[in-house]
Amino acid sequence: MISFKQIISRLAGFTAIHASRLDSESVYEDVRFLSQTSGYLKKERLYIGYTSELPSFTGRYSGCGLILIEDTGFDPLGVDASIAVFSAGTDLLRLFSAAQSLFDSAFRFQRNSTTMLAELSKGKSLEEIVRTAADMLGNSVLLPDSSGRLITAFSDGEISDPASKDLIMLGYVKGNFVREMQNSRMYAGIFESSNPVLLDCGLFKELRRIVQKIQVQKRTVAYLLVLETDRQFREDDFETIHMICDVISLTMSMKQDFSSYTGEFHEHFMADLLNGRKTSGIDPAAVDGRWTLGDGDRRFTVAAVCAPPSCADPYPYLEYLRMRVKNSIPECKSVYYDKHLVLLLSAKDEKERIRVEYGGPGAVCGPGAVCGAGASGGPGARGRNIRGCGAGASGGAGASGGVGASGLRDGRPGPEHPGLRELLAEENIGAGVSMSFTNIMELKKYYGQAVRAIELGQLLGHQQIMFDYENYYVFDLLCLAGAKADLKDFCHKSLETLINYDLSNGTDYFQTLHEYLKRATNKTQTASALFVHRNTMGHRIHKISELIGLDLANGENCLKLFLSYKIYELVRHV
C-alpha cells in the first residue's frame, strides 16, 4: 500500500503541471489504466490515463487516485479525488510503467515484512496459527475458504450462531446462507476491502464478527472470521487481525492446494471429492443448490484435460486454458487436480448425444481421414489393410473418422459441449469425457472415467478431440480382465479364420463382419456404409456364416464376435 504523495514524489523523470490533495490519508493497493468503460472507480486504486477518458459523472471517482495526461480542456479543481495532471505528449506507457514499479517495490517490502513476522510462527500449521490467533484475540476464530469449506477453527466455548455452527458441524456453510450473504451489501464490502471489516447488522446483528479476506497471489482463497463470543472487540483487534491474515496468507502460499486456487466458490469442494474426502460428516444439504449448471440442470459430465507433453510444468498452461474455458463456457466449473484441468459440465444434451452412436446423418471425417469408395481399406481395396479395422484404419467405410468409425465421433461437431470442442481443437489437445451422472458426491468415480477415456484413446491410437468413455468402457473392462489373464485366449477363433481367408482370396470379410456387427446385424445400413447393394451384403453374410460355422442371427454368437473385435483392437496396441 502506498500514498498518493509518495507516488508523485517518486515518479522520476516526470513533472506534474498540477497536483492536489497530496496530503490525503488515502493509500492505494494497485494501479490500473483508466478507460471510459471503467464505471465506478475504486477508492483503493490508482488510475492512469488521459483527461478525455475521465468519466463525466464525478461520483464515479470520488476518493480514488488519478494520474492524467492532458489531451483536452480540463479543470482539475472540479475533481473530488487526489489528482496529478501531466502535460500533453507525456508517454502514457512509460508513466504507467514507472508507477507500476513503485507498487512492485511496495509489494516486495510488504512481503519481506510479512516474512519476518512469519518467523514467529515458523513451522506452525494453519491449525496452530488459528489457535494462537484465538488466544491473542480472546474470541472464537474460524478459517473457511472461498467455497465455504472450513479449513480449521478454534473456540473455547459453544458457538450458538447458526451459520458458524453449521460451518463447524457440517464442514461447509449451507448454500442458502452463502447466497443470502452474497446478495447483501456486506459481501461487497468484505470482497473489495483489504482490511478487516466489522459486521454488526442484518444477518449478524445477534453476534458481531470481524472478517478479512486472505489472498494468495492476489487471489482471495479464504476468510478469517473472528466472532465476538467471549469478550467485546477492541480497536486494536483490527490491526492484530490484519497481521494474522498476513501470516496465514504466507503459510498458504507455500501449499500447492492454495497456490493453484483461483478463489471460485466450488473449487475446494471439488478437490475434496476428487481426493476421496467426500461424505464423512458432510450433510448433502450443506452443499445443495451449488451444483446447477446453465438452466438449473443437475446432470453432469466430467472432462479431464492434460497439458501437451511439451509442457515441463503443466500448471501455467492449464491455468491459461482454464481462463479460456471460463470465458467460453461460463456455467462450467473447474479445478486444477493431479496435473489435469477437471471440468464439470452440463449433460443436458445426453439424449441427443447417444442418438447418433454409430454414425448417421451429418457424420463427417476426422482430421486427416481418407474416406469414400476406393479409399484404402474400403470397397475396391480388396485384400489391403485387412488389419485396419476400427479406429486408426486409413479411410474407407469404418475407418477412423468415417461413417461408423467404431462408434467414435472424431471431428464431428456433435451436440456435446461444442464450445469446449472448438476450444480444444484450436489448442490442438484432447479431453476425456465421462458418462453422465446426477450425484455430485460421485465426482471422483466419473473423473476416473474421463482420465481412462483419454488414456485408452491414446493407447489405441485414436486421433480425436473428445475421448468419450461411452466408447471406451468395454476396453476398460477388457483391461481389467487382461490384468489377470491373456486376452488373446478370449478372442474367438472365427476372426483368425476370416483374416486367413481374406489374405488367401483377396476378400474383405473380416471388415464386413465388423461393420455388420456394429450396426446390430442390419444389412441395409451395413450395405450403405460399405457402398454395396443389399443383395451383395446378404451373399457376403451368408458366406461368412458358412466360413466360421456360426449362425449370425443368434444374438449370443454376435456378442461373442463383437467382443472379440474389441479384444483384437486392444491387443494390437498393448
What can you tell me about this protein's structure?
By secondary structure, this protein is α+β, with helices and mostly antiparallel strands. It is 38% helix and 14% strand. The strands form four sheets. It has a five-stranded mixed β-sheet with strand order 2-7-6-5-4, covered by helices on one side. It has a five-stranded antiparallel β-sheet with strand order 9-8-12-11-10, sandwiched between helices. A five-stranded mixed β-sheet has the order 14-15-13-16-17, sandwiched between helices. Residues 350-415 have low confidence and may be disordered.
Tell me the major beta sheet.
5 strands, mixed
Strand order of the largest sheet: 2-7-6-5-4
Which segments are poorly predicted (pLDDT under 50) over 5 or more consecutive residues? 350-415
Number of DSSP strand runs: 17
Helix amount: 25-40%
Globular, elongated, flat, extended or rod-shaped: what is the shape?
A: elongated
Gap between N and C termini: 59 Å
Structural class: alpha+beta
Chain-averaged pLDDT: 77
In short:
It contains 19 helices and 17 strands. The chain has helices at 4-9, 92-118, 126-137, 162-170, 175-182, 185-192, 237-253, 256-259, 267-274, 314-328, 350-355, 418-427, 443-459, 473-482, 493-505, 509-518, 523-530, 534-548, 555-571, and strands at residues 2-3, 18-20, 27-28, 30-33, 45-50, 65-69, 82-86, 140-144, 150-154, 197-199, 209-216, 219-227, 300-306, 333-337, 340-346, 431-433, 466-468.
